[in-house]
Amino acid sequence: MPTLARKPKAASATRRKPAERERVLIEFPASLLKKADQAAAAQSRNRSEFIRRAVEQAVEAIERRAFEEELAAAYRANSELGLEVAGDFEHIDQEGL
1-11 pLDDT, tens per residue? Predict the structure, then answer.
């Protein structure tokens, strides 16, 4: 069987290479798939785009929550220092009163 040579695409400094994609098989209950298809159609998207975006949003939410928890832990860990620094400047805050 002969192989076909592909013509290389011209490199462009402004064009970005699309992210590599992998095909996956996911099982859905029929009722959920029907709802997903309806929601995708309402947003003028196909099923793959709709599901991909939903997964992206879920991952972003998980990452945001993890960052917020890390930030809250840092605030708690440094709360004593913050109170100490605030106390050091309390007399300055009172000068304008």
Answer: 444 455 555 54
Element (H, E) at 93: helix 90-95
How far apart are alpha carbons 27 and 95 in whole angstroms? 67
Q: State both tokens at 65.
A: 């929550």
CA pair distance 65, 62, nearest whole angstrom: 5
pTM above threshold 0.85:
no
In contact, 37 and 47? CB cutoff 8 Å: yes
Nearest to 37 by CA among 51, 58, 52, 23: 51
What is the C-alpha to C-alpha distance for residues 53 and 94, in angstroms, rounded to an integer?
Answer: 52
